[in-house]
Write a structure and sequence with these properties.
Blueprint lengths: L4 H14 L20 H8 L3 H8 L8 H10 L4 H10 L16 H8 L5 E5 L5 E4 L1 H7 L12 H7 L12 H19 L4 H12 L1 H7 L11 E6 L3 E12 L4 E7 L5 H22 L10
Antiparallel strand pairs: 1-2, 1-5, 3-4, 4-5
Helix pairs in contact: 2-3, 2-4, 4-5, 7-12, 9-10, 9-11, 10-11
Length: about 290
């Protein structure tokens, strides 16, 4: 398929002008004259340089890759029909829909964008983290940095000892059963050739603990509502975990909270300050870098 530069540029301009800062979790600020978002705001949402995005809107620049178009579709909060249209304009076949899709629905993103001061994350059904709030990163680290099968938290649980260090030891056995049971139920639902099948085959070959649990054929072992952490910065931390499921994309929005006035609430507040300070330090070391270069 050939790229339709004029159509792509027009579609990007139209979608940018239709979005308001509040739609994507950005402050409106004063003296805003632009109808919709500014180009630099969209570029930041899409994790690319303003110059690169501007060239696309002006029908110039290189042929954008599938990954770049996917990032633009997510940054502009496109729904699935709009995402598919954007891929076709860019000369690519649209990615598959359904449980394997990593495109987050606009509705789920709108909720996520309003949780800036809350520990929250969006994960796929096999536990691959797609988005985290700053406090979510301060709580469990940047889980979006992993590649390959290690993107799945269940895979990391059985193959990387460091994955368990953040959780209290008394909960490890239950969490192992939960991950194995959840993967078994998912495999039965999605079948051979699915991500669940791929991860199960890997874990059967790599983890004796997983093989032992797999042979029990357990299902229905659920996540505890209260998650207990042993955090290196604030010590023991107990948080309630609520989950919102997108039925069309099989994505989960997981939100971690503590009751106001409790010791856990105070520790979570402290962690927010620590996380903000850490983020400032990181940004000070990357001054001048384009968003697309990080």
């Amino acid at each position: 398929m050939a790229i339709d530069r004029a159509g792509l540029a027009e579609f990007l301009r139209e979608r940018r002008s239709a979005l308001q800062p509040e739609d994507v979790g950005l402050p409106r600020g004063q003296r805003r004259r632009t109808a919709g978002l500014r180009r630099e705001e969209v570029a930041g949402l899409c994790h690319m340089s303003t110059d690169y995005y501007t060239r696309l809107e002006r029908e110039r620049g290189p042929h954008p890759s599938v990954q770049m178009i996917a990032s633009i579709a997510q940054g502009l909060h496109l729904d699935l029909d709009e995402r598919d249209h954007l891929h076709r304009l860019a000369g690519h076949q649209p990615p598959p829909r359904g449980a394997s899709s990593e495109h987050i629905s606009p509705g789920l993103l709108r909720i996520f964008d309003r949780l800036g001061d809350t520990a929250a994350e969006i994960v796929t059904e096999v536990g691959e983290t797609l988005r985290q709030t700053p406090l979510g990163i301060a709580l469990v680290g940047d889980a979006t940095r992993y590649t390959g099968p290690a993107r799945s938290r269940g895979y990391r649980w059985f193959t990387d000892p460091a994955a368990r260090a953040l959780y209290v030891a008394e909960d490890h056995a239950h969490m192992s059963r939960m991950y194995a049971a959840g993967l078994r139920a998912l495999l039965a639902m999605r079948g051979p050739g699915s991500r669940a099948a791929y991860l199960a085959d890997l874990l059967l070959a790599e983890s004796e603990e997983f093989r032992t649990l797999w042979e029990t054929h357990e299902v229905g072992i659920h996540l505890n509502e209260v998650k207990r952490y042993h955090h290196p910065e604030v010590g023991r931390l107990e948080l309630n975990c609520q989950t919102l499921i997108d039925p069309h994309q099989a994505h989960r929005l997981m939100v971690y909270t503590a009751a106001p006035g409790t010791d856990n609430y105070d520790k979570l507040e402290m962690l927010a300050v620590i996380g903000a300070q850490s983020l400032c330090t990181t940004r000070s070391g990357t001054v001048g870098a384009e968003p697309g270069d990080r």
